[in-house]
Amino acid sequence: MSATIARSLTLTAALGLCLGLAAACQTTDDPSQGGFVSGVSALNSGAYERRLDQKRGELQNEQWRQQQLQRDLEAARREQANVSAEVREAQQREDALRSEIADLDRRIAVAEQSRTADRAKLARVKEEVEELERAQRLLQADPVIDIESKRRRLAELERRRALLEKALAEAIGG
Questions:
Q1: From CA 66, how far away is CA 89, in angstroms rounded?
Q2: How far apart are the C-alpha atoms of 125 and 136, rounded to whole Å?
């Protein structure tokens, strides 16, 4: 019986050794997955170099993509700066227009006190100045207007203001 047990133990040990060697011989191209035998096998077969080349290519692609995204970000920042400058310029034009309209109002008030002013013309100019003020306030309050539309509307309001300057001068008699 002891010979049978010894033989059984020897067979079990041999079978375990064979299974262990078979597991050790199972290879993979990924050095992080395999053991020593896999690493040596990958080096000898060129699989490690192919995997390295693949990873280098992926890295190069990602670096190129990062550069492209950086260029896009810089372009977006330049565009934002341009738009901000355009918005500031439009705001300055609005402020100037508001000031000029207020000046027209003051001049009309003075002209209304004058005995030489043409009252009918002055009344028309006053109505048109009030309409110009309303249009300017609407433009200023518009939250969704794009910058080009705002520029066009400002130019139109400025043109109307210039015409009102002439009409006021005519109504005053100058």
A1: 35
A2: 16
